[in-house]
Fold these 2 entries.
Entry 1:
Amino acid sequence: MLRTHTCGELNMAHVGQIVNLAGWLQRSRDMGGLTFIDLRDRYGITQLVFNMEINSALCMEARKLGREFVLSVTGKVAERSNKNPKMATGDVEMLVDSFTVLNVSKTPPFTIEDNTDGGEELRMKYRYLDLRRGVNRKNLELRHKLGIETRNYLNELKFMEIETPYLIKSTPEGARDFVVPSRMNNGQFYALPQSPQTFKQLLMVAGYDRYFQIVRCFRDEDLRADRQPEFTQIDCEMAFVTQEDILQTFEGLARHLFRVVLNIETGEFPRMSYDQAMKLYGCDKPDLRFGMVFSELNDIVKGKDFKVFDDAELIVGINAAGCSEYSRKQLDELTDFVKRPQVGATGLVYLRYATDGTLKSSVDKFYSPEDLRAIATKCGALPGDLVLILAGRTDKTRSALCDLRLEMGNRLGLRKASEFKPLWVTDFPLFEWDEETRRFYAKHHPFTSPVPEDIPLLDTNPVAMRANAYDLVINGTEIGGGSIRIHNKDLQKKMFTVLGFSDEDSSNQFGFLMNAFEYGAPPHGGIAFGFDRWTTIFGGGESIRDYIAFPKNNSGRDVMIDSPSAIKEEQLKELNIRLTP
Amino acid sequence: MLRTHTCGELNMAHVGQIVNLAGWLQRSRDMGGLTFIDLRDRYGITQLVFNMEINSALCMEARKLGREFVLSVTGKVAERSNKNPKMATGDVEMLVDSFTVLNVSKTPPFTIEDNTDGGEELRMKYRYLDLRRGVNRKNLELRHKLGIETRNYLNELKFMEIETPYLIKSTPEGARDFVVPSRMNNGQFYALPQSPQTFKQLLMVAGYDRYFQIVRCFRDEDLRADRQPEFTQIDCEMAFVTQEDILQTFEGLARHLFRVVLNIETGEFPRMSYDQAMKLYGCDKPDLRFGMVFSELNDIVKGKDFKVFDDAELIVGINAAGCSEYSRKQLDELTDFVKRPQVGATGLVYLRYATDGTLKSSVDKFYSPEDLRAIATKCGALPGDLVLILAGRTDKTRSALCDLRLEMGNRLGLRKASEFKPLWVTDFPLFEWDEETRRFYAKHHPFTSPVPEDIPLLDTNPVAMRANAYDLVINGTEIGGGSIRIHNKDLQKKMFTVLGFSDEDSSNQFGFLMNAFEYGAPPHGGIAFGFDRWTTIFGGGESIRDYIAFPKNNSGRDVMIDSPSAIKEEQLKELNIRLTP
């Protein structure tokens, strides 16, 4: 090795030893007769000292070294006179005897510090420099640790990691596939997997009753901030289980990760049905770090000649504790917030419950003080609080109030990155009706089993059917979801029919799975976690990109390697494809 | 769970307990008043007993069950009168009280037994049934265990697993890329990685001095028996190391895997230079499970008027101990073997050293008994042995004799699947000259560092340069290879020039790497292991396909899911590509 120690390990026990370090020049300071260099590697920083009086030639050489030069240094470990308790190696420094420049560096285009002066685009172009920053290193260390701990936990439970293929078959249901032209099979294409769903089900049919895989998945979607064209899943499946077994098993995994990675004991995860979540929080992934649950006000506010409420399908409020003194400006900001097209409300009604006990609302002329008090009571408001009310069509109103609730949570500092509130959401609907295409879509995916007692509804009222499906939500982010699967060919076929697949389509795309169901498919179910998201939540981060070594930008480009890019005419020719002019 | 125990765990300690099992009906036997069913799951087989006298209705129902039906059974564990010491559960059986058919099965198209009656094509089409066979289950269990042990060993050594992208950039050097059209970037393509080579080097530049990843790689090559279009690598890289550090570190990994997976202490791995390996075994991946090293005979056999030898660049023999009594037929077979186009020799000369001490050869008329004795001595032959000699151009002759040596090893049973002989091969040549394209190719890849003292030869005699490269060979199979990399931009640029890259090409394809080298790239090197091959060797198997859950056939097809396949016109349109008519 070109070093005897790392830059993170020297301490008082090493004082007097001659050691060798290698790393990058983080910064250097000339202080009269002394030159100090901070030498950095993955493990930490060690202060190097060069002394003009002891070796002026060496010191002069050291003064020529620039930021990010790669050095190999030899010297004696000494106790510092000015100890730095903030650094792991802050008790000591190295009195350098000699050094070698292993490589020089141009001045980096941004500072290699946690708080860097580089914008995102520049940092992505020079991602290999960006990744030198401590914040990014910690993110990748966290990711590595989560991977190791997940694997060992599942291995202990006799789960087998089984690799499934990446070159599979295009199945246009769901998101768009990335496809790969086959040179050896003229005019045909592979697809990259959106998930190993069908393969893990086949593994259950094959008898591998506990499967997992940490696996890359691909979706050719228009990208949003928290989406990447390739992302990583912790993909799991079990046979001979009920939903309860799966929730227990993977709550076990999640609690293990909370314990060993974050040192947090979460206790048992609460559970909530989809209907409850929608009613109380307006979405299927409520952030439980704070309250502000929805209170439905139809009974109280209708029939008082306030047309907006009278015409509304739902009138629903939340109570923002301690906000009764919100200024006109603050209330206007909230109104503007809910009127943004992304939120989509038409207006906001508020009710101040002043500390002196008086109630004042933006709809005073329609409601008596008793009415207002009834609203306040229903919303659980106390003197000093502010009730915020939206009204309109149920689904849109819930969704808008959900956004407002989260906004208030942010404004009030109630969404702390260091606090964790996991939640199981269960009893999802099986289907969603899409007005535009006038057909049903599977809320989860077409392999999800209905709740058994709802199966008769398949012929009569599919939209009322509940799925044997569940999501794991942490702090308002869905980090995993799964279901008990269908393992009966006839039921699977019927599902495809309800979803608008012709017999030919379902047989072309999923015939192999339905055939497999005829040869002794066991009852089975599973779950898949978004590994990027899980890591991001655990790291207290905002964007999954910060937890991916080489992410792509919003156009799906890797700006560092400049990809995608044109390929040679010969390559196209071999693949028997042409570009459309 | 739909079971209290697995089919592999019941023993005398459970006798008297009421338990619940779930699994597949492996076979059933009606014996007068009793019906026996072997119930199978991933963990083993348990014998179920149904008794006509005790419950005739249940027994009659059981007699209707077919092979591969999925059952849930409840009953009492009892000691067997006829114990079966070959089965883990052979001391006990279950007296069944009740059962449920969880799913029925059509009669499988082949028997679910280690020795099945299904041909490969049929088994691949029904791979989910093939994978139920114990042999395949053991292969995937071995693979899982190797993965877990590899990760934990490297994690202990502070290696970080870092995921690199799958959607990267096409670099036509080396094998052919699979490409992925980008919908969002019109006319442009991603490529699937042939290996994460450049990314792991960038991670070294980024300071992550110990990286690994168990990662899928892709090569669009015409397939051979032991090649797959997608395969898995254990990919590793380290910074601040010498070649010796890498050999030590990964010999450590390999010895760990031998120890914990196969319970074998290998001792230190021998090392051999490329030149030695070629001279003594005729190839760069010698199988050291047996001797038969090459003996070069030019000094002895030339100048005796035997034109074939006089004209040959190399005359080289091996000694097959104990084969002096080979029949005419056997010798003809060997001659036919070496004349096969894949082997390519023009003939075979033999020398029998009879047990009575007499020597007899196929070229007796050219050589005196003293000559023959000298040949025998040089080859280390003793009475009872057979010397086999080939002659011709050095490279072709070595290659042919290498094949003959392996063939003799097979015939003599010297290549035992249960014996393991690892070997490091070092000092590979840096370049290969290709007559056809009249240019140099990198023997390893263009990022491989020359042995430092050979760098001056870059301008004068590239073909004489040695690489700082190494392979790990086990039993004649290369299971891994790597090198110390170039970390200097100028040297890297020069390498690309010698390899015939224009400045534009090298900058287009690898500009990001050469730029990175300007910002403090540390000395680094690494290795990548073929995970499929390693598993196959450890499993004592022949084909990597048997160790891959869902392999492709020689046309790159997955015959189970019937992929690749045609995609919809809409998909092509969105991607702005057309099929060439």
Note: The longest strand of chain A covers residues 18-31.
Entry 2:
Amino acid sequence: MILKGTFLHTPALGKMEVYERAWLVTEGETIVGLYRTLPPRYQGMEVTDWGDCLIIPAFCDLHIHAPQIVNRGIGYDEQLLPWLERYTFPTEARFSQQDFARRVWKAFLNRLWERGTMRFAAFATVHKQAVWQLMELSEASGLRGLVGKVNMDRNAPDSLREDTDASLADTEELICRSRAELKKTGFILTPRFVPSTTSRLMDGLGQLAERYQLPVQSHLSENRSEVKWVAGLHPDIPTYTQVYDTFGLLSKGRTIMAHAIHLTQEETDLLEEKEVTLAHCALSNMNLSSGVMPLRRYLKQGLRCCVASDAAGGNTADMAKTITASVQLSKLNWLSHPEQTPLSLGEAFYLATRGGSAFFGDVGAFLPGFQFDALVLRPSELDALVERTPFERLEQFLYDGDDRDIAARYCAGTLLSRPFGEEER
Amino acid sequence: MILKGTFLHTPALGKMEVYERAWLVTEGETIVGLYRTLPPRYQGMEVTDWGDCLIIPAFCDLHIHAPQIVNRGIGYDEQLLPWLERYTFPTEARFSQQDFARRVWKAFLNRLWERGTMRFAAFATVHKQAVWQLMELSEASGLRGLVGKVNMDRNAPDSLREDTDASLADTEELICRSRAELKKTGFILTPRFVPSTTSRLMDGLGQLAERYQLPVQSHLSENRSEVKWVAGLHPDIPTYTQVYDTFGLLSKGRTIMAHAIHLTQEETDLLEEKEVTLAHCALSNMNLSSGVMPLRRYLKQGLRCCVASDAAGGNTADMAKTITASVQLSKLNWLSHPEQTPLSLGEAFYLATRGGSAFFGDVGAFLPGFQFDALVLRPSELDALVERTPFERLEQFLYDGDDRDIAARYCAGTLLSRPFGEEER
């Protein structure tokens, strides 16, 4: 496949490249090259010409709660723990009903597609059937997703609290079934967070992580009350991060921890050693007054970081708005912490594309050998009036655009259409 | 006119009222009453039934730069003063071209309509012709606007710097012409900010304010460098606020000052005495790292406040996103200033409806005798799955909705259609 258009990407943090009116060649899922002049060997071949469109890497969202897509924007006059009780848990309890689950999962996958998120790692719910439904629907959608069955066997409402052995058995069944039947959708171990999972459950999940060489996702140090709670639950383990490590849940190079706000230097050193990816969730952290992740410090230390929506702690699944909120939060934080220089827009864009996508391997930038995930942005109505550089067009799309600006979406080399029809909602 | 639907409004700060499946009766521009049961005298009359829609007061935006609508999202890696030089001023210089101006003004008015802003106070540019064009187009749009010709005769690029006498003469001509010819669109005196206006110009504008009993809008204490600059320009006047007052530009009860971040108690006392409306521009203040207005303190003091988009310092003209950003900023600020309790969503909604609309008189809430400005919101696609209270529907619209959720817009009792056709753009 040969595409023509103007390409913009961020192959490394702090590096942005623009190829105006250039050609990108793919073979199957993979990029062969991006060329300012089309090499002679491709001359005369069919070209998809996107004209004046701007082509950028598609978004990757490494922290999102699929069932909470219905709760976007709801209940932020509360903070984390009461908000979970009042909004999050009652919604998740409804996923024992398969018809309800199927309709929400379709809305969730449609929404990701619509907003340009082609890869994701999602928390589903505790329900084995519902998780399997989401995995099958995700496979059908063409998106590339990691889906986790939530594990929780303590400090949860009766409707969601699991028997420890059943939780482990259901998890293992989903691991095996998804490995046997699915190609584009992976399973990710998903203890909700320390307060929801007993030591025995965490230990069992750690053994599954090792046995099946699985990725892991969870929450870490989101809120000060939560940190104190964890310290009280595990008085024998010095820090929150070490609780996960103790139970084998910092699977090296394969772990995502969301929030990671209130950490000691010892903890960040451990996260660095374990090559954990930290998902910074700016919108959620603002909505729930959780605190501000010292992202600049983590980036300087060389930790793996990305930005993520955390819908519905974040009020939208839209990664463009997640990017701009990350920049805005970093600027506000800079006013009171002058040593934490703010994110540039290019840096935040990197963290939402290559930064997160690295969890899936070689994807998230237009480099040879990388999988081709992209969004094609049409020129805005006002571009005819004021000439814009490709970067300014990116700025305008991220800060005040929406899905109506996206003309096409590619995931792993394939043009994707809307996964599910309107009548399916 | 009789409307049926579910109504939600905030008649006072901290007060929210919901009328489910109720009736609102208007006569001309004005609300007669909002009734849980339709009074017998209206029985049998024609009713516009909005079914399951939620009807809320329309937005009012008291600080927006009309020419900058083309610059939404652009250039925020800069701070205020270099950003003005690089993006704002070059764009405004183009408004000497009437064809360009006409197209941008139409896009501006269309955008306000689209996003549900029915009343506004806008900075135009220095150009007499272009300002008059905007006033005429605004009149045709059906929106209710105050439009200001920008005055600037110092510290401006050659292309925008005015001769002092010409600036005053052009201003007076626009005042008289708009009073003679327009009904829905008013003129508002608009010295850009102290650094752009000589003492002689400010003095002349102060005289016009007095002679014609005119409203005034400007910028105040947005950024620390600017505050220092003003102190250097007027070493004989103790504070920035007093500079405006010295020249008669704090027209009592008729003045809007945007930003108002870095103020002394003396200044806020003066602003209170002069009944100045302070426009809090959260998105802009984050984008340009300007600082955080101590809004809670001002509200406690009883100052008149509203939230405003400040596009294109703000990255969108969308007041829904301005509201949610104001809440998010207040929560972040609360983390480092625990005495400044955060805004609730209802408070921020009040500040974008009744709070700002008060500048136009009795409008912005569904009270008898008030002008009827409203947005009709359709149920979202997911409402069929999860039952929502009217307040939760408002939350979801503000936090993750867009213009596609707005089924109809009323301004001063009239259903408004899109002001200008697509072909006009």
Note: The mean pLDDT of chain B is 96.
